[in-house]
TrEMBL record:
It comes from Hydrogenophaga electricum. InterPro entries: Adenine_glyco, DNA-3mA_glycosylase, DNA_glycosylase. Gene3D superfamilies: Hypothetical protein, domain 2 (1.10.340.30). Coiled coil: none annotated. This is 3-methyladenine DNA glycosylase.
Amino acid sequence: MNTDDALPRCRWCNAAPEFPAYHDTEWGFPVADDRRLFEKVCLEAFQSGLSWRTILSKREHFRRAFEGFDFHRVATFGPKDVERLLQDEGIVRHRGKIEAAIRNAAAAQKVVDEFGSLAAYFWRFEPDPATLAAPQTASTHAASVALAKDLKKRGWVFVGPTTAYAFMQAMGLVNDHELGCHARAKVAAARRAFKVPV
């Protein structure tokens, strides 16, 4: 992707050459696909203590290692799979985070049983735009606190209020692109056209 196009972008795009493409085509656009939603929860957990650049550079390998983030398959992983993943140099080899992904997969199945889809569940926590702080000035919101609390009650781990808000930013539950960013209007249009899952 040509990043010498002089388009105004969120400042964080300057931190790594991989960021502009992700920013322009994914970050903030509304998502209703359960696998992508589950993937993002998992990758946010793996990012804990690390940079997003590290995770983004390993994302394709994560997808292969975790069966495309099909949570029905991941939920069947056992101790041998944990040991296999701990030997996989293409991912972040952290036992607690690997086990969290497996545990969260089982919890995701229960959410789907209750709400019909992960999308229907997560979008229940979409905050009122009028309650949001100025773009990229907050790391949590009452909605992300509520989401994290509810996930914990349902057995999810490694998803605190800050992680939940980063998830909301990335998956389009909020439009947190800077006011002068070229993608802000595109995301706003995508959100207007988006049919919130029920």
